[in-house]
């Protein structure tokens, strides 16, 4: 099992590296293995989805993992695939991570003057305060692995902003939907 898990992790990292290196318009990046016919797949099975948290990598996170599985299952089912417990044509590996990105909106100078961040006007005195916020950004990676060859058949990465943890389902559904718009097999 250790060798299999290492191969799966290595495959996911290679797919992720290929996605990052492959320029693509928008916040969705896709890598397709042209040597694998995606239309021949009829069944799929899941590896435990992995979520990177502050505490480390969590498999089958109780909040995010079911949302990712539901969204991906819906897209694959629309394309005629069926989920099975074992012996599937494709195996699904997925990752999710989020980060807070600082954003400075304005700098406040002595005398109460507020200038937009990046403004070309530079008062002689240093700012006394800044106004900003943290923007939340999440990334989902879905890797479909050909069970026969153990090669990545199709992988997608979607990054999007979100503001409310209670609205994650809609954010994840939209991100996965955008990924599968670039899947070579169209819905039936």
What's the quick description here?
This protein has 188 residues and is α/β, with parallel strands linked by helices. It is built from 3 helices and 9 strands, in the order αββββαβββββα.
CATH architecture term = 2-Layer Sandwich
Large-scale geometry: globular
Radius of gyration: 21 Å
At the fold tier of CATH, the topology name is: Double Stranded RNA Binding Domain
What is the highest CATH level, the class? Alpha Beta
The SS-based structural class is alpha/beta
- Taking pLDDT < 50 over at least 5 consecutive residues as the criterion, the unreliable ranges are 10-26
Distance between the termini: 36 Å
Question: How helical, in percent, are the residues?
Answer: 25-40%
Q: Give, in order, the helices and strands.
A: HEEEEHEEEEEH
- Profile the largest sheet: 9 strands, mixed
Descriptive overview:
By secondary structure, the chain is an alpha/beta fold. The protein has one domain (2-102, 135-180): Double Stranded RNA Binding Domain (2-Layer Sandwich). It has helices spanning 2-21, 64-78, 168-180, and strands at 28-32, 43-46, 50-53, 56-59, 82-83, 90-109, 113-116, 129-146, 151-162. Strands 1, 2, 3, 4, 5, 6, 7, 8 and 9 form a nine-stranded mixed beta sheet that branches. β3 (50-53) and β4 (56-59) form a beta hairpin. It is globular. The two termini are 36 Å apart.
Topology diagram in text:
Blueprint: H1 2-21, E1 28-32, E2 43-46, E3 50-53, E4 56-59, H2 64-78, E5 82-83, E6 90-109, E7 113-116, E8 129-146, E9 151-162, H3 168-180
Parallel strand pairs: 2-5, 2-6, 3-6
Antiparallel strand pairs: 1-9, 3-4, 6-7, 6-8, 8-9
Helix pairs in contact: 2-3
């Amino acid at each position: 099992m250790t060798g299999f898990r290492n191969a799966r992790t290595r495959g996911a990292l290679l797919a992720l590296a290929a996605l990052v290196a492959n320029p693509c318009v928008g916040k969705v990046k896709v890598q397709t293995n042209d040597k694998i016919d995606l239309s021949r797949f009829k069944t799929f099975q899941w590896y435990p989805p992995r979520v990177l948290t502050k505490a480390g990598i969590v498999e089958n996170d109780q909040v995010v993992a079911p949302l990712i599985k539901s969204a991906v299952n819906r897209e694959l089912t629309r394309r005629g695939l069926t989920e099975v417990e074992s012996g599937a044509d494709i195996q699904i590996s997925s990752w999710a991570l989020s980060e807070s990105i600082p954003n400075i909106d304005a700098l406040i100078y002595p005398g109460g003057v507020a200038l937009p961040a990046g403004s070309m006007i530079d008062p002689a005195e240093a700012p006394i305060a800044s106004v900003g916020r943290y923007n939340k950004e999440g990334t989902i990676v879905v890797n479909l692995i050909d069970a026969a060859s153990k090669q990545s058949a199709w992988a997608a990465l979607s990054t999007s902003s979100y503001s409310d943890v209670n609205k994650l389902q809609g954010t994840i559904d939209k991100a996965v939907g955008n990924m599968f718009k670039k899947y070579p097999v169209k819905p039936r």
